[in-house]
Structure formats: structure tokens, C-alpha cells
Amino acid sequence: MLVDFSLEDTVALTRHLLFAAEDHATSHSILRGLLCLVIVLAWTVWRCWKFTVYPWLHPDEPKELPYFIPTHGASFFKDSNGLLERARRYFASTGTTPFALTAFGHTFYVVTHPKDSAAVYRNTESLSFDEFVQALMRFNGNDEWTIKNVHQPLPATTKAGFANPEGLGMINLTQRMHMHQLHPGEKMAVFQLQIRDWLNRKLTLDVLASTDSTDTGQSSVDSVELSLYQWTSDWFVRLGQHLYFGDVLERVDPEYTDNFVVFDEVIWKMLYQYPSLLCRDMTVPRDRMIASMKAYLQLHPDERRGQAAWLINSLEDEFRGIGVDDNNLAILFFHLYFAINTNSRKTSFWVLTHMMRNPSYIAAFRSETAPAFDGDDLVDMAYIQDADKCPTVDAIWLETLRVAGWAASVRLVARDVVIGGKVLRAGNRIMVPHRLLHFDPAFAGDEPTTWRPGRWLDSDAGRKMHKSPCWHPFGGGRTVCSGRFLAKGMVMAFVSTILRRFDIEAVGNPPMPQPDVGRPVLGIISVMEGQDYRVKVTRRKEASV
Ligand code: HEM
């Protein structure tokens, strides 16, 4: 009886539970369905508002590239230029420019018309670069006092040191001082001679054989095998460091240049301001470099100032003059260090790689630069940089900048402003993506993605390309790269001395290395990881042409 009752009861209870569970499941799926409906409705309302109603209410503002989930962050992260190109094509039929897109919680106005890009570079009142500088300073450890005071206008009085009659703040005065060192003139001439002598001394097979850290023991008296990207990176950073700090920084920290190359390959994590914990591969070399820079600054001035460039000593005086301490000065000099060194190492890699795949340009390069040499030694730096005397060399330089240049100029819209007939709202960012302009067939002609230096020489239009408002390999306006003349001098001296002294060829038959389009850079694109080019450098039989 007891058993019967229990069984029935159990069955009834089970049934009840099953019904209850079914009820529960039913109400769950109803809830889930309702939730989905609410989400779909909310999404539809959001999308309608964002891409139909708002643009209709505000026809004077740039139209925004539609998206399904509320940001373009993922596509931007994977290939920012690919996303920008897609957006340009999307708006091409309506001629909409500037247009807008949202990524990482920021709205970017994108300028693709050369006339508008000129307006962006001109407008220093409403469009500000300072926000970028301040964020970088803060991210790398500058304190708030320093950030505030280096931006503060200074008294416009006559003072010792670098003249500042307009009373510019230190950040703006620094730009003037860069130009004083790096634009053609007396101080730049010192650098040019140092570059020439350093390369003449160092570019020998013996030194090359001892350079390659991946040396496979394949060096012989007449040839050396090297990884090209590793080679150009190592040498250009050493050369840049030598110009600015003599041999002293290397004595303080023999691994400074190595740390820089490691840091520079992940510099995009700094540009995206990753949380420190997630990017120790960037912060560890960065912090070492900043600590070593501080150790350099704490050496007695007699031990270091004699070898440093005018710019380094003068900047030190000016920054100390307004009260900046060693910690903060070390970070400011570290910023200077990566501006000097991040681009030339990559440019020389791309120049050599493209030329090896197009050997007729090697012959032309050799023959045009021959008059600048005495035997195997480069003597005339000006000659190899002169576009009239070396037109093909110049075209190779320009074409490599065009194809490998990946930077964009970005400014904060500090107050509402009209560009290209559209109202840009304060608080958003405006971007001039150089690559889009450089790859526009209206500027570059046929096959814009192909490396073809002839496009700069073959026609009247081609010969005028470098004067086009589309052409911005070094940015523009107040922040245009002050190192552009030095960069050309360094790269052309390096390549011409190599070609004068050696034959250079790829080992095996590797494909063209791919640019790493996913990583933002401050100028020239990096090579995809693992795609370095192994090259064989052989002593040339005859040094003449
Ligand atoms: C091929 C090599 C180079 C390329 C493609 C390049 C490109 C650039 C670009 C795109 C900018 C930003 C401009 C803007 O936002 O408007 C810049 C800024 C700068 N570059 Fe270069 N650069 C190169 C080599 C150099 C070298 C060798 C130096 C120094 C020796 C240098 C020093 C600077 C400095 C100091 C700035 C900041 C300008 C300022 O705000 O005052 N660059 N560069």
C-alpha cells in the first residue's frame, strides 16, 4: 500500500515537475524571444536614426559609413587602409567627402580630397595635434606638471640659447629646433658628412659578417649572407643613434639599438594605448630605453655633450631651463629617438627589395650615382640626392615612399569647423590617410599598387606628381616631418654605397615580402612577421660602373 501510494505519488510528482519544467522552459523561450525582439527593435531604431534620420536632419555634416554592429573597430584593427578604401568606394558614386566612420568609440572624419587635405593642414586653430602629443606623453610616463608646462607659451623675451621671439611653448619651439638641425644648412651638413664617413668606414664584408646575429657560418672572404630587414634595421638605428648621441649612449647601454628594434615592431600597441598588462613585449623594451636615457642624462656633461648633436644639447638646455627633470627629459628624448629611427630602416629595406626584383633599376642606380664616388668611397652626398643629376634614383625614392607609406595625419577637432563644405563637430577626429591619396589613379596613373618608378619620369604629368596636393609621404602643415631631407640622405647613401661595393641578390627564390597591413605605423609599413628576405652580398669584381 505504502509502495503503491509512493509510486503513484512519485509518478504524479514527476508529471507535475515535468509540466512545471515545460512551463518554465516555455516561459524561458518566450522571454528569450521577447529579448531578441527588443534587441532587433532597438537595433533597427538605432540604425534608422544613425544612418537615415540623423543624416536627413543634418545634411551639412559628413555622412557616416554604415555598420551592423556599433563600430568599425575590428575592420580598422585588421586593415585600416582596406576599411578606408572600402568607405571611399562606398561614397564614390555620391562624391561624398569628407565622410565619417566610427572606430574604438571615436568618430573620424576622413578627408580624401586633396583640396580638403590642404585645408586640414592649414587650419591649426580649430584642428589640434596637441591631444595626440599629450596622450603619448601621459601613456609613456610624463607627469602632469611636465605635460602642462611644455605646452604653455613662454615669455617672448630675448634669452640665451635658441631664440624664441614669438614666445612659443616648448613643444612648438622643439619643432623649430628640429628644423634648425635637419633642414638643409650648416647643422645638417655636419650630419651629412657623418653619414658618409660612417658608411664608408663600416660597409665592408668583414663588418657585415660580424653584424648578422643569425649568421649561419656562410660568410666567406668574398660574400656574406644576411637577413635584409634585420640588417637595415640594425644599421639604421645605429646610424641614427650615432648622429644624435655619438658613441656615448651605446656605452651606457650596448643593447639600446636592439631594444629599440624590438619595441618598434610592436609600437602600434603604444599608438593604440594598450593597457600595460597586455603589452609587456612593448613596455619592457620601452622602459629599459627610458631608464638608459636617464642614465645617459645623469652622466657628467663633459662625458657626453662633446659627442652629442647640436639638437640634443640645445633641447636639454631649453627643457631644463623651464624646470623639466631627468625622468621627464628621458621620456621626451625617447620620443625623439623613435621619430628619428622608426622609418628609415624600413624604407631602405623596401628600396632594396623592390630593386632586387627589378634589376634594371640596380644598373641605372649604379650608373647615375657613379660620379659621386672616388673608388669605393662615397665623396659627394649632395650629388646622390640631386634629382636633376640622378633622376632615376629620385624616382626610386619617391615610388618607394608612395608604395610603402602607410601613415595618416590625425587631428582633434577642437571647435566646430567647416571643411569641404561640411560641418565637423568639436570632439571628433579628422584624418588624412596619405595612402588613399597616393593610390588614387587620378594621382598615380595606371596600376597604382605596382612599384614602378618610371611613373615619376615618363610623362609631363608624372614629372609634376611630387608637386601635387595629393602627395604627403611626410605628413603636412605644422607637423610635417622635419627629418625628410636627412632620411633621403641616409637611405640613398646606404643603398648607393652597397651597390657600388657589392652585388646583392636574394637567396633562393622567395616571394615578395608582404607589408603588415594590420599594424599602424608612424610612416613606413613594416614587413609581415617571418617574411624577412635572406640576401647574399658579394664583393663586386670592378668597383666602377
Ligand atoms: C622615410 C623616412 C621618414 C618618413 C616616411 C617619415 C614620416 C613622418 C610622418 C608621416 C610624420 C608625421 C607628420 C604629420 O602628422 O603631419 C613625421 C613626423 C616627424 N618626423 Fe619623420 N619620417 C621619416 C624619417 C624621419 C627622420 C630620419 C627623422 C629625424 C632624423 C624624422 C623626424 C620626424 C619628427 C621630429 C617628426 C615630428 C614633427 C613635429 O611634430 O615636429 N623623420 N615623419
UniProtKB/TrEMBL annotation:
Heme binds at residue 481. GO terms for molecular function: heme binding; iron ion binding; oxidoreductase activity, acting on paired donors, with incorporation or reduction of molecular oxygen; steroid hydroxylase activity. It comes from the Eukaryota. Coiled coil: none annotated. Keywords: Heme, Iron, Metal-binding, Monooxygenase, Oxidoreductase. Its cofactor is heme. InterPro entries: CYP450_sterol_14alpha_dmase (IPR050529), Cyt_P450 (IPR001128), Cyt_P450_E_grp-IV (IPR002403), Cyt_P450_sf (IPR036396). It holds the Pfam family p450. Gene3D superfamilies: Cytochrome P450. Belongs to the cytochrome P450 family. This is Cytochrome P450.
